[in-house]
Specification:
golgi apparatus; 3 helices; mainly alpha; signal; about 70 residues; transmembrane helix; membrane
Length: about 70
């Protein structure tokens, strides 16, 4: 089943996308610099900003997701 049709898988994909973009921006900040900030290409930049500003919430979500998948 596709991650689009399964809500739990969609949340995992979004959470991993935010974590990946934040990690890439911390290592190589120039990769995510885009001239058009309001286009589809600016989505990784916005995800990196969300990951940086909400980092305690994002890390707690990763821990809960990991525990849930270990139990399941």
């Amino acid at each position: 089943m596709s991650a689009i049709f399964n809500f739990q898988s969609l949340l995992v994909v979004i959470l991993l996308f935010i974590c990946t973009c934040s990690y890439i921006r911390a290592l190589y900040p120039r990769i995510l610099e885009v001239k058009e900030k309001h286009s589809f290409a600016g989505l990784p930049r916005k995800a990196a900003i969300v990951g940086e500003r909400l980092s305690p919430l994002v890390s707690l979500s990763c821990i809960v997701m990991g525990i849930f998948y270990l139990i399941q």
